[in-house]
Amino acid sequence: MKKVLIIGSKGFIGSALTRYLRSVNYEVFEADIVQEYGNPSYLQIDPNGSDYEFEQVFKIKTYDACIN
Q1: Predicted TM-score (pTM) of this structure
Q2: For 27-67, how does the pLDDT look when each residue is reduced to its tens digit (9 = 90+)?
Q3: Using H for helix, E for strand and C for coil, what is the string for the chain?
Q4: How far is Cα 20 from Cα 6, in angstroms, rounded to an integer?
Q5: Residue 56: how many CB atoms within 10 A of its CB?
Q6: Which of 28, 52, 62, 68 is in the most buried spot, having the most CB atoms within 10 Å?
Q7: CA 34, CA 10: separation in Å to the nearest integer?
C-alpha cells in the first residue's frame, strides 16, 4: 500500500484528495495547522514554526509521496 502525506489536508482540495486516495486504498497521512483529536495519522503543524518542524514530520515516517 502506498503511503502519502498530504500537507494542507483540512482545506478544500486537501480534504477531497484525502477522501479520494483513501477510497482507492492508499494509506493517507494528514498534516495541517488545524487541531484534530483522535486521528493517529494526523500531524498538526505550527503555522509560525520553523523548517525544523517539517524535518521532524519526515523523520517520523517514510512516505512514498508528499502532496502540498
Answers
A1: 0.84
A2: 999 999 888 888 888 988 887 766 656 777 888 889 999 99
A3: CCEEEEECCCCHHHHHHHHHHHHCCCEEEEEECCCCCCCCCEEECCCCCCHHHHHHHHHHCCCCEEEC
A4: 12
A5: 12
A6: 28
A7: 7
